[in-house]
Structure formats: structure tokens, C-alpha cells
Amino acid sequence: MAGGPTAVLPADFSDFLTADADWIGVDAGSYYLLTKGVTSLTAIGDFDSLTADQLAFVKAHVDTDHFQQAKPEKDFTDTELALQRVLSHFDISEYQTINLFGMTGGRLDHELDNLLNIFQERYVSLLPKIRLFDAGNIVAFYHAGDYVISDLYRKKYLGFAALNGIQHFSIADAKYELHDFSSDKACVFASNEFIEGQDVKISFAAGDVIAIYS
């Protein structure tokens, strides 16, 4: 849970709060989780978006072994520090998904950072399980390969964005199909749709793709 505007959290966010989950609060996200009754969490970040009183509140309610404060001048973003914490302290094989909240709706550079830095090689083992949620979208992340995408979230649209060029990209069993598309530039394939009762299949030989349920 990062520190983005809470107004763009999913409408059903309270359901996630009541689920059996391990929480990491990133910067202001840690304070927000504590105020919503999450009592067991890890708090990470430079906490420069919190007031002194809010930071004191976080420190008072988070065990010292689960509190990690970084300097504002650092090589990694607060979100990346959280991903690194997942890699070093959690057995990801025990988790079906790694859900990210509070990542969008604020500063655009932060939003792009949260979308793009996930593709760094150091996070490759996390990538298949990461889902980013906000009020209108759910985002999944894919390296090159073959994938079957199910209509798990019952959204109307399914879009794809190739972030750094793409080779031999195909979309099958969707309303709008695509066959063996390649480009050296970033490109977006928006407003596709599931066909009732069918999974969508995508494949590509090189590049990074995000799938956006909206």
C-alpha cells in the first residue's frame, strides 16, 4: 500500500483490508493502513510525506523489526524498497498475487515509476504475481512469452500497452484480434473486450507488456 490519493482506491478496498493478507505500507500508506485497523504490517519508506506526529504514530504501532526508514536521498524509490523487502523476507511461492494499491492518481512521475520500474530484472520473479489496483483499473505485467488471460475481474475493457517496443505480438480469442505485430516504439492497443465464456490469449517474442482491465 503506497501513499497515493486514497480517493482512487478501488471501491471494494475494504474487502482487501478484511482479507487474510500480509501488508507492507509504503511511506504514507503505512499510516493509512494503521488508521484503517491493520495492526500487523511492515512500514517502509523515507516517510517524507508524513507529518512528525503521523510518523511518531507509525513508529509507535509498528514493531521495530518491521520498520525500515530510508534517507530521502537514495538509489531506489520507496516502492522499490517494498518490492525488495518482499524478495528478502517473504516466500512468494505462498502467495497467489502481490497486490499494489495507492500507486496511481498523484504525481505523474511517481505513477510512471510505479508502472515501469517493476519490469527491472531484479523483480522478474515477482512480475507474474503483481496486480496493480485503483478505482478504475487493474494492471497485470508480462515479460515475453505465451499467456492465457481470464476475465477474473469482470471489467468491460481489456487494453494492452507495449512499453519498449514489441516483437511478434498476437492477441487471440478477443473481440479484436492481432496477428504477429512488431514495432520498435511503445504502442497501445486500447478498448479490446473479452468474448463471453472465452479466455484471451497473448504471445510475444520480445518486449514488456502491461494488460489493463478497465
Automatic annotation (TrEMBL):
UniProt xrefs under Pfam families: TPK_B1_binding, TPK_catalytic
Organism name: Oenococcus kitaharae DSM 17330
Record has Phosphoprotein as a keyword: no
Listed name of the protein: Thiamine diphosphokinase
GO molecular function terms noted in the UniProt entry: ATP binding; kinase activity; thiamine binding; thiamine diphosphokinase activity
Keyword Nucleotide-binding: yes
Domain Thiamin pyrophosphokinase thiamin-binding: residue ranges: 145-210
GO biological process: thiamine diphosphate biosynthetic process; thiamine metabolic process
EC number: 2.7.6.2
Keywords: ATP-binding, Kinase, Nucleotide-binding, Transferase
Broadest EC class assigned to this enzyme: transferase
